[in-house]
Amino acid sequence: MKCFAVLAVAGVAAAYPHARPDDPYSVPGPQYEQSYEPAPKQVYKARPAYGNPKSEEYFPPQPYQFEYGVSDQYTGTAFKAAENQDDAGNVLGSYEVQLPDGRRQIVTYVANEKGGFNADVKYEGEAQYPPEPAEGYGNTYKKSNKYAPSPSKYAPAPYQPEPKPYES
């Protein structure tokens, strides 16, 4: 009889039409009003007006002349330079340098608008290379093996594990 009552209640429940539950994951409808107005018209501003380009101010070449030299016997530094320019912009110059290998380098040059910069390099003397480096500010490091670790005073006790008792 209980079985009959349960089947009767189930039949009545199945016969009653049920509404579909709301789908919580559905896409919501639009929340705005659509307007069918045309897009706003683009307004373009006038291009900026630039003035005429300014011409660069021209300064004619000014004649000059200079000369200097250094000779230091203590360090062995020796060089000198000289240069002059005429009112047409042509530059003539030279410099000399005492090189570390004993030679003297002499450079004479001409610079102008048409030919550019032209240099003539000459060397006087023979290169001398000493067998040993000269005394100076070079590498003065001398390797020494003075460091030796001192013997350790600590001696750990020998490892002797105790045997585990046999468990049965």
Question: Could you walk me through the main structural features you see in this protein, from its secondary elements to its overall organization?
Answer:
Keywords: Cuticle, Signal. InterPro entries: CHIT_BIND_RR_consensus, Insect_cuticle, Insect_Cuticle_Struc_Prot. By secondary structure, this protein is mainly beta. It has a domain at 64-124. It has one helix and five strands. The chain has a five-stranded antiparallel sheet, with no helix packed on it. The longest helix has 14 residues, at 2-15. It starts with a helix and ends in a 44-residue tail after the last strand. The model has no long low-confidence stretch (mean pLDDT 82).
Q: Unreliable segments (pLDDT under 50, ≥5 consecutive)?
A: none
The biggest beta sheet reads:
5 strands, antiparallel
What would you call the shape?
flat
Q: Please work out how many helical segments DSSP would assign.
A: 1
Mean pLDDT value = 82
**Rg measurement, Å:** 50 Å
Strand content: 25-35%
Question: Kindly, what is the distance between the CA atoms of the first and last residues, rounded to a whole number of angstroms?
Answer: 64 Å
Task: Report the order of strands and helices.
Answer: HEEEEE
Strand order of the largest sheet: 1-2-3-4-5
Query: Can you give the helix content as a percent range?
Result: under 10%
How many DSSP E strands? 5
Based on secondary structure, the structural category is mainly beta
Name the features.
168 residues; mainly beta; 5-stranded antiparallel β-sheet; 1 helix
Summarize the structure in short.
The protein is mainly beta and 168 residues long. It has one helix spanning 2-15; strands at residues 64-72, 77-85, 91-98, 104-112, 116-124. The protein has a domain at 64-124.
